[in-house]
Design goal:
Blueprint: E1 2-5, H1 11-23, E2 27-33, E3 36-42, H2 49-53, E4 58-62, E5 82-87, E6 90-95, E7 99-105, H3 112-125, E8 129-131, H4 149-162, E9 166-169, H5 173-179, E10 185-188, H6 196-205, E11 209-212, H7 219-232, E12 237-241, H8 259-266, E13 271-273, H9 275-279, H10 282-294, E14 299-303, H11 321-334, E15 341-342, E16 378-381, H12 387-396, E17 402-405, H13 408-416, E18 422-429, E19 433-434, H14 436-444, E20 448-457, E21 461-464, E22 475-478, H15 480-485, H16 487-491, E23 497-500, H17 504-513, E24 521-525, H18 527-533, E25 536-540, E26 549-557, H19 569-577, E27 593-599, H20 606-616, E28 621-628, E29 636-643, H21 648-661, E30 663-671
Parallel strand pairs: 7-8, 7-14, 7-15, 8-9, 9-10, 10-11, 11-12, 12-13, 13-14, 16-17, 16-18, 22-23, 22-24
Antiparallel strand pairs: 1-3, 1-4, 2-3, 5-6, 18-19, 18-26, 20-26, 21-24, 21-25, 27-29, 27-30, 28-29
The chain binds phosphoenolpyruvate (PEP) and manganese (II) ion.
Residues 107, 277, 303, 313-314 line the site of manganese (II) ion.
Length: 675
């Protein structure tokens, strides 16, 4: 049994809880996971749980049925998010929650140049942590054993140059002490998973640990090894499935995909996958990696080498940098299907453009504030569990303070008056089309600009009271978008009366305020809204087509805005360089998309002339939408999304010309497109 103690419990109250348990025949052990404190009670005692729960400082009592306690979800229900790095020039990287965090690098550090070149290549493609072995546990004593501490120094320097924390394997307790100031995360290799003295020493250091699953370890043995680390003092453990030994010989090991959902159910710790050591064959690494992401992995660790044929270890399973880049693009596209976002962190700013022979293609933009920099809340429209709140957390992380607003206009107000650092609003849905209210708000709030976008997969649920059944329902509430996106499902229930609400989660919350028979009302919203308000999901996946995505934009108060309401090209650049808080996951790359608004004169070919300016310069048009101009019947504004070509001069020239050929030209913002 685990007694979860309240934060800030006094030593006196803790003593009373311990005494209560000891008096009733339990052996008692005090435990901690970071700031969370627990008392573990074992043995043949018996106690009245109700009485125990009423003691001061007791938050809840969990009956643990597992031999591991601190690693168990019974002890801690929420996902643990492990932070690696986050000092000086090294961005903080979160592993766990709704992100997919990618670790990449060579099997072994071979030279200063090799690790730097690899670091640069994987960083450009989107890796956020650098891996590499300095001490290599090789099956043969005659194989390359690694460069030792020198290799670790090379790797740390490469991580600093490229803005990446590093992870490296530690093979003995003595080395753990020597390595602790150089590495950001320790890796416990598969062969050492049950080296308990090593686990205890590494756990006591308190730094994040990547714990590989042993080649013959059961899931329970693996979680007990994690327990050793947690019980020794660290709270930051990431589990890594890397293939287990089976009778199959074609692949190096057998990737146990099912371990991912199983472990995620049993433990709150993040789980990542190493497809390289699991399959051992370069051509099979990508499909295994994608399968891991689809199964819910929180990240990957992948071996990449600039010239795998020359690698001193594990060349045959190392990806070429180009293959790795392609893999990350595929993961970015796959992530929304499993409700996640590929984590990006800011690239180091290179004033001179060149450093140690390395040029970051994205160095044109100003540095982007790191996650901790967003201290004011981020605003969204709706109540807890709204899709916009999920999008917001995807972009800024679960920890960011959030401001719930009673409508889209209130989000714009909060951004403008500074009560929110940024806002997140939907602009279009792949089934139901544009959210016109927000397009119109951009015109009413010219001081607000788009600084990022992200797409969220929308899975709708029918949500009701605990006792509600499909047959008891008479009224269904949702945002009008919810009704449109679930049209086919609703058509099967013509007896249900639709009641529109300003937000899907608000429709769910309204069920709780219902004075009459609660089983008559249901709401259409996401599962998160049901969880947030303690209601039941009656049916899930009721949207007409599973390919249902909503595009959200991140808005902030404009910097460098030209008060006339017209944006010239200079102002474009000012906006680019003076960007206000851009979400860390979205702002790391050079902007490649712009959203514009203009009208045209009432004469033949005027719209064509404007679009021709774009096409002549190879500027791709991804969206064109017209909206009536209020107070000017039969005149329209055109909302246009365009790509920014690699040569920004082309874009600037196009904008200059568009300004002269169009009327009422505005830029809504330039930002990085999401896939
Ligand atoms: C490694 O990651 O380089 C490694 C040796 O992996 P494992 O311990 O999983 O074999
Ligand atoms: Mn290897």
């Amino acid at each position: 049994m685990i007694v979860v103690l309240s934060k800030g419990i006094s030593p006196h109250d803790k003593e009373i809880v311990g005494g209560f348990l000891r008096d009733r025949g339990f052996s008692v052990r005090e435990q901690a996971l970071g700031d969370d404190q627990f008392i573990s009670a074992s043995g043949k005692g018996s106690a009245d749980i109700g009485e125990l729960t009423l003691l001061p400082g007791v938050e809840r009592v969990a009956a643990t049925s597992k031999p591991y306690e601190l690693a168990s979800r019974e002890t801690r229900a929420e996902d643990t998010i492990v932070t690696v790095g986050g000092y000086d020039s090294i961005p903080a990287v979160s592993v766990g929650g709704s992100r997919i965090s990618i670790i990449a690098g060579p099997c072994a550090v071979e030279s200063r140049e090799q690790i730097l070149e690899t670091a640069y290549r994987v960083r450009e493609s989107g890796a956020v942590i650098l891996r590499g072995g300095a001490f290599k546990p090789r099956t043969s004593p005659y194989a390359f054993q690694g460069l030792g501490m020198k290799g670790l120094e090379f790797m740390k320097a490469a991580g600093e140059t490229c803005g990446m924390p590093i992870v490296t394997e530690v093979v003995s307790p003595e080395l753990a002490d020597q390595m602790k100031d150089l590495t950001d995360m320790f890796q416990i290799g598969a062969r050492n998973m049950q080296n308990f003295e090593l686990l205890k020493r590494v756990g006591a250091i308190g730094k994040p640990v990547l714990l590989k699953r042993g080649p013959s370890a059961t899931i329970e043995e693996w979680l007990l090894s994690a327990e050793y680390l947690l019980a020794s003092g660290t709270r930051d453990v990431v589990l890594c499935e890397r293939g287990i030994r089976t009778f199959e010989t074609y692949t190096r090991n057998t990737l146990d995909i099912s371990a991912i959902p199983v472990v995620k159910g049993l433990s709150h710790l993040p789980v990542i996958v190493d497809p390289s050591h699991a399959v051992g064959i370069r051509a099979k690494v990508t499909p295994a990696a994608l399968a891991a992401v689809a199964a819910g992995a929180d990240g990957l660790t992948v071996e990449v080498h600039p010239r795998p044929d020359e690698a001193l270890s594990d060349g045959p399973q190392s990806l070429y940098p180009e293959q790795f880049e392609r893999l990350l693009r595929d993961i970015e596209a796959l992530a929304p299907v499993v409700g996640k976002e590929l984590l990006r962190t800011p690239l180091p700013h290179q004033h001179s453009g060149r450093k140690e022979g390395i040029v970051f293609l994205s160095s044109a933009a100003e540095p982007v504030p790191s996650p901790g920099a967003v201290s004011a809340p981020v605003a969204f429209s709706g109540e807890s569990g709204a899709f916009a709140e999920l999008a917001l957390m995807r972009a800024f992380g679960e920890e960011v303070p959030r401001l719930s607003c009673p409508g889209f206009g209130a989000v714009f107000d909060a951004v403008l008056d500074g009560s929110a650092a940024a806002g997140v609003v939907p602009v279009e849905n792949s089934l139901a089309g544009s959210i016109h209210e927000n397009y119109d708000l951009f015109l009413r709030y010219p001081d607000v600009a788009i600084v990022g976008e992200l797409k969220l997969r929308i899975v709708h649920c029918l949500i009701g009271d605990e006792k509600a059944e499909l047959d008891s329902i008479r009224v269904v509430r949702s945002h009008p978008q919810g009704f449109i996106q679930c049209r086919e499902f609703l058509d099967k229930h013509p007896e249900w009366h639709p009641e529109p609400y300003y937000n899907t989660a608000a429709a769910v919350a309204s069920i709780l305020r219902e004075s009459g028979d609660r089983t008559r009302v249901a709401a259409i919203a996401g599962e998160a809204a049901a969880t947030a308000h303690g209601l039941k999901v009656l049916k899930t996946g009721i949207e007409t087509n599973p390919l249902n995505y909503t595009r959200f934009v991140i808005i902030t108060r404009r910097v460098g805005y030209d008060i006339s309401g017209r944006m010239g090209c200079d102002t474009f650049r000012r906006q680019e360089t003076g960007r206000a808080p851009v979400p860390p996951s979205l702002g790391s790359d050079k902007p490649n998309k712009a959203s514009l608004v203009f009208s045209v004169s009432d004469e033949p070919g005027s719209l064509f002339a404007c679009l021709k300016i774009l096409s002549e310069r190879g500027i791709n048009l991804s969206k064109l939408e017209s909206r009536p101009i209020q107070g000017q019947p039969w005149r329209y504004l055109f909302y246009v999304d365009v790509s920014i070509p690699d040569k920004p001069e082309l874009f600037d020239a196009a904008m200059d010309e568009l300004k002269t050929k169009s009327e009422d030209f505005h830029s809504l913002g330039i930002y990085r497109a999401s896939l």
